[in-house]
Amino acid sequence: MIFLIDLVAYCLVLVLAAIFNRLPENIALGIGRNVGKLFFYFSSRRRVAYADLKAAFGERYSAAGRWAIIRDHYARLGQMAVEFVRFPKLDRAAIERLIQFHHPERFFDLPDHDRGTVLLTAHLGNWELMQIASGIRGKPVHVLARNQKYNRLNQLLNRFRETHGSVAITRGMGIRDLIRALKRREVIGMLGD
What we know:
The protein is an alpha/beta fold. It has helices at residues 2-22, 25-42, 46-57, 63-85, 92-98, 105-108, 129-136, 151-161, 174-183; strands at 117-121, 141-145, 167-170, 187-191.
């Protein structure tokens, strides 16, 4: 059964990637946002998100305001999924247009060290874009990626991550690869959590 689910998910992502890469960017991203909003209505996690927002912010937001934040979050997740499958289509001009870099020299002009560099980021915005933007601008990143439950789908997602020179490294034995990359004075990136 797992093999069948993996195969179906793999094929579905390939088909969606082909469709979204043929659509104009604004239409593709708009569809992603709307599908994300639709998922909001079927997700069992939305109540957990509501409780988390209420615990974190108390009465700062009304009930309607909390639900609006959660709907917007789902919309952004849908957009990020579309952005992810469009990674192969991105080039330097698209990166310069889509991403605002603050102090890029702090990263792209890193002095040569006898060790590599570790980039640590949070789950804010489309964190996956970091490795794509970096690779396109000539500084590929070794990224620590979580293994997904389905092997074929996992390999496809890592192929998207690696489209512009970055290297996806999985947890476990892949940690040795990260250490080797640091010894070669390369850049590794990971999420802070």
